[in-house]
């Protein structure tokens, strides 16, 4: 075979070999991703779709379902408790956004190489690993107007969990304790990935203090800040355990939120379809916030 014919044949063999390798890599990638995709489909996508479908039915969990269309949503948007829960969720959201800056402040303080700093970091992180029930009981005792530590500090008892004016603020304050610890860990992890060359160049240019933080450190921590904000928003909107332990949604449903309202309707009153409608509204609110912050971060990055 002449040299002119041999070269195209060799190129064709190489292409076939490369295409076969590419196919094997695609198959291998699919096999690795398949278990995770199946888990997401079964435990995330399917429950979301099932909840959306269930919200159009009236069902007590035992008898036959009855299709009611948008009746659950119409009733929900006319229920005063829904607007109380929505207002409390917005209050949780606004006050919970204090957790990322507080976590950053603590992380900056702890990001130093001194003796015993690991023990101090562990103590600061301890609230996050505590169960929500434990945190709720601790702060319930703290707020108790007869023997609580708050009474000893102020000199007189205040019924924080028994007064509609204070109860939501008291529970949010308790929830900020572990949430700040979690944001602190995120920022401590982010601080370890900072570009040392940029920091050194900034120091040589005379940057320090707030200027260093604003122009050098915070831009590099943008992905960490995005994650901290998203996790904090989700934590604020799905708040449930502390409310269940500390106030039960009271007094007079003044501290209820959408997640607790959903539980209340499903477990106490067996209104599964109505509860699913609340879950869909809560999911939609979460998605609006998450998509907004995701688009904002991507736009900033581009």
End-to-end gap? 54 Å
- Sheet with most strands: 2 strands, antiparallel
Low-confidence regions: none
Shape: flat
The chain-level structural class is mainly alpha
Q: Quote the average pLDDT.
A: 85
| Share in helix | over 70%
Strand order of the largest sheet: 1-2
Order of helices and strands: HEEHHHHHHHHHHHHH
Gyration radius, in Å: 27 Å
Strand content: under 5%
Domain unit count: 2
Count the beta strands.
2
The name of the CATH superfamily of the largest domain reads MetI-like
The CATH topology label of the largest domain is MetI-like fold
What's the helix count? Answer: 14
Task: Record the SSE blueprint.
Elements: H1 3-54, E1 57-58, E2 66-67, H2 71-77, H3 80-96, H4 99-110, H5 117-129, H6 132-143, H7 149-154, H8 167-191, H9 196-204, H10 209-220, H11 222-237, H12 241-246, H13 258-268, H14 272-301
Antiparallel strand pairs: 1-2
Helix pairs in contact: 1-14, 3-8, 3-11, 4-8, 5-8, 6-8, 8-11, 11-14, 13-14
């Amino acid at each position: 075979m002449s040299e002119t014919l041999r070269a195209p044949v060799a190129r064709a063999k190489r292409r076939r070999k490369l295409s076969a390798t590419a196919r094997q890599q695609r198959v291998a990638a699919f096999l690795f991703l398949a278990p995770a995709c199946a888990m997401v489909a079964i435990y995330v996508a399917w429950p979301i779709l099932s909840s959306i479908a269930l919200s159009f039915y009236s069902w007590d969990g035992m008898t036959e379902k009855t299709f009611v269309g948008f009746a659950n949503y119409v009733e929900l948007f006319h229920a005063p408790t829904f607007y109380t829960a929505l207002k409390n969720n917005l209050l949780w959201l606004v006050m919970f956004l204090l957790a990322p800056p507080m976590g950053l402040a603590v992380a900056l303080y702890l990001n130093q190489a001194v003796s015993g700093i690991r023990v101090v970091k562990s103590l600061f992180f301890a609230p996050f690993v505590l169960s929500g029930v434990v945190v709720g009981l601790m702060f319930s005792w703290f707020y108790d107007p007869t023997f609580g530590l708050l009474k000893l500090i102020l000199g007189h008892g205040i019924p924080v969990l028994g007064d509609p004016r204070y109860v939501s603020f008291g529970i949010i304050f308790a929830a900020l304790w572990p949430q700040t610890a979690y944001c602190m860990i995120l920022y401590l992890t982010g601080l370890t990935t900072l570009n040392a060359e940029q920091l050194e160049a900034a120091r040589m240019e005379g940057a320090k203090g707030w200027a260093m933080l604003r122009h050098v450190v915070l831009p590099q921590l943008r992905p960490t800040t995005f994650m901290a904000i998203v996790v904090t928003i989700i934590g604020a909107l799905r708040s449930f355990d502390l409310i269940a332990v500390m106030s039960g949604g009271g007094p007079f449903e003044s501290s209820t939120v959408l997640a607790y309202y959903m539980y209340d309707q499903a477990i106490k009153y067996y209104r599964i379809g109505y509860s699913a409608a609340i879950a869909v509204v809560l999911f939609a609110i979460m998605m609006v916030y998450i998509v907004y912050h995701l688009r904002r971060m991507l736009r900033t990055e581009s």
